[in-house]
Design goal:
By secondary structure, the chain is α+β, with helices and mostly antiparallel strands. It has helices at about 15-25, 35-40, 45-60, 80-85, 115-125, 145-155, 175-180, 185-205, 210-230, 245-260, 265-270, 285-290, and strands at about 5, 5-10, 65, 70-75, 100-105, 130-135, 135-140, 165-170. It has a domain at about 100-170: 2-Layer Sandwich (Alpha-Beta Plaits). The strands form 3 sheets. Strands 6-7-5-8 form a 4-stranded antiparallel β-sheet, with helices on one face. A two-stranded antiparallel sheet has the order 1-2. Strands 3-4 form a two-stranded antiparallel sheet. Strand 1 (about 5) and strand 2 (about 5-10) form a beta hairpin. Helix 9 runs antiparallel to helix 10 (about 245-260). The two termini are about 15 Å apart.
Length: about 300
Amino acid sequence: MAKVDSLPVPGPPRAKTLVLDLLSTLRSGSMPVRALVDAGALFGLEDNGVRVALARLLAQGLVERDERGRYRLGAAAGAIERQVTSWRRLEERLRPWTGSWIVAHGAPREGGERGLRRRGARALRFVGFRALAPGLALRPDNLAGGVPAARETLRGLGLDTAVLIFGARDLEPCVEARARSLWDVRSLEAGYHAACRALARSEARLARLTPGAAMVESFRVGGHAIRQLALDPLLPDEICPAAPRDALVAAMRRYDRLGRAAWAGFRAEHGVRTTRGAQDLRMMEAADTLAAVGGDA
């Protein structure tokens, strides 16, 4: 695994990850197979490997094919894509914290599919929940839309309807203190600072790289920061200061413009319109680790 300013940056993406990440950048329309194959070659992925990945993703409903044989994200990838790319609207996702909590209680039905239980745990983690006691997890109620919106997001990410989602407040002081300590705030803050440094170092050298190398670097370095933001628990100031996270969002917005520029020639060559640079969102890894869809290498 390569490192940038002591920040671990993922190695070459798997074919499935590359395909999903590139398709998630589309503004409209679809992407030709040739574009996906050419992008794969930049990362050392063979033509056949990309095509096999497309076939598997199509079977899973994670991508769709239009009448011209071009591809776009499928409905099954929607919940993951929305969650992973929501870093751009981070401020819109939050509201002031009043001290109340969103609680998840229960577990999938007895005898239920193991994968269902696993998806539920990943969905909760993805939305920033942490376990307070066996069968009970919570997070601060500082997300826009409150309990109903959190419930909808969790269901979309695969949480079973047997798990009850509700609000709570006025915890006993000792329980309140324990709840506030569930997140590793020191590690979160260190991650924000390290990601900002990595983005700055990469930003300073992108212009000196060849077009292909700049595409690869912006994909990896920018994507690592995006994934960090996508998996962030979005804690209120009362638990974790928001300033370092906000600084990372601002740095990523600047870097995103460089990512677009690095991939401009690729987009023009293949007639692709995108909403953002082709950063490595690691959607399959995020899905495998934290949400509803899986996939083999």
